[in-house]
Specification:
The complex is a heterodimer of chains A (121) and B (240).
Chain A (H helix, E strand, L loop, with lengths): L13 E4 L2 H13 L9 H32 L5 H24 L19
Helix pairs in contact in A: 2-3
Chain B lengths: L1 E9 L17 E5 L2 E8 L8 H13 L7 E2 L5 E2 L1 H10 L1 H11 L2 E9 L19 H34 L3 E8 L5 E10 L3 H14 L4 E8 L2 H4 L2 H8 L3
Antiparallel strand pairs in B: 1-3, 1-4, 1-5, 2-3, 6-8, 6-9, 7-8
Classes of the chains: A mainly alpha (121), B alpha+beta (240).
Chain lengths: 121, 240
């Protein structure tokens, strides 16, 4: 395609929004999750490993919750079994929360960017 | 000495004015067969990711956008000239296909924010006080999961609606939909240069018809999202 002198590309790129602050906040969240350089020191390696392991545990925990809810809705479980399963999952959630606090991780830290596929959680 | 790569070009034999590159390094055009690459000679093994280096990379890629549509390399790509020549000669058909795809186009971006809510008035139920803590926990999880599914369906609907609104004006698109996040949709559209005005008008119409969604439109940009050459390069040479 031939480019003409009136081509709109002679202008700088434009950014149009009526909600600048909202988008800046969201984009800041995205850039905060981008890795800059990997620091190979003992503390960051430990925290990085904890983040990875806890992300996978969180992923499995959510799968277990969905499976439990599906079985509850399917009428497969007695009230006693629902109570028991609910308590077990509740304790698992509390334990994971405790581990997150211990390693200084927030809820939004437990995720993996899988590129074109999206995020794990 | 290594080459820092900015972008791959076709149909350009000479460029008179080029901005300074990363770390103020001069930028030159390196012709290879019928293609050309904008490069800087650098004496480093890695380029630091800073605001200045990122903006310098973007400025060099953008400097040729009014003459041609470049295929940008991933920020920080450093290789020897032999590696570059070998890569271009072995991957030439794929790169030419890529250049054909983006030829005459630019990238436009749309981001959409929505107000996510976990609550559906139809789903709200009072907790049964007779239930134990475990059963109440599972009931709460059931409501959360239903909310997630509802948001996922709504997000898919937004993505389909946006495509319907501008589909005829775009050559290609990359769309990421994230129902659990406030920034629910991020789209990159490959738009022919002579359709940019129509594209902007269509987005403005779409925005006016959905006051419940907050839009950000940006561009024109070089087709970073559609270049797709950095992964091949990394795979082939282990460049990081």
């Amino acid at each position: 395609m031939k480019l003409s002198p009136e081509n709109p590309l002679s202008a700088e790129p434009e950014i149009e929004t009526a909600h600048v602050e909202e988008f800046v906040e969201q984009l800041r969240c995205v850039t905060d999750t981008l890795p800059s350089r990997i620091n190979i020191d003992a503390h960051s390696v430990e925290q990085g490993l904890a983040k990875l392991v806890l992300t996978l545990i969180e992923f499995i925990r959510r799968l277990l919750e969905k499976q439990a809810v599906r079985r509850m809705e399917g009428g497969e479980l007695s009230p006693e079994q629902i109570e028991e399963l609910g308590l077990a999952l509740m304790r698992l959630e509390a334990k994971l929360q405790e581990l997150k606090t211990q390693f200084g991780l927030a809820d939004e830290d437990l995720n993996l960017d899988l590129g074109p596929v999206g995020r794990l959680i | 000495m290594k080459l820092y790569l900015y972008c791959l070009l076709e149909g350009i034999a000479q460029l008179d004015q080029l901005p300074q590159g990363i770390s103020n390094a001069p930028v030159r055009l390196l012709p290879i067969d019928d293609l050309a690459v904008l490069v800087s000679d650098v004496d480093k093994d890695a380029v630091a990711v800073t605001r200045e280096t990122a903006l310098a990379h973007a400025a060099v890629v953008r400097s040729v956008l009014d003459r041609t549509t470049p295929l940008p390399f991933r920020f920080g790509t450093l290789v020897s000239e032999e590696q570059l020549r070998s890569y271009l000669s072995t991957r030439k058909p794929a790169l030419e296909n890529n250049l054909r795809l983006v030829r005459g186009c630019v990238e436009m971006g749309v981001k959409i924010i929505w107000s996510i809510s976990n609550n559906d008035p139809h789903e709200q139920q009072l907790s049964d006080e007779k239930q134990g803590a475990g059963a109440r926990f599972l009931e709460e999880k059931r409501r959360e999961i239903l909310g997630d599914e509802r948001r996922s369906a709504q997000a898919t609907e937004i993505s389909g609606w946006l495509h319907e609104s501008i589909g005829e004006l775009i050559r290609d698109e990359h769309v990421a939909v994230r129902p659990s996040e406030k920034l629910v949709l991020t789209a990159a559209h490959l738009v022919e240069r002579n359709k940019i005005r129509q594209y902007r008008e269509k987005i403005a119409e779409a925005r006016a018809s959905r006051p419940d969604l907050h839009f950000l439109m940006s561009g024109p940009w070089p087709p970073y999202t559609f270049a797709n050459i950095e992964l091949e390069f990394k795979t082939r040479f282990g460049v990081s």
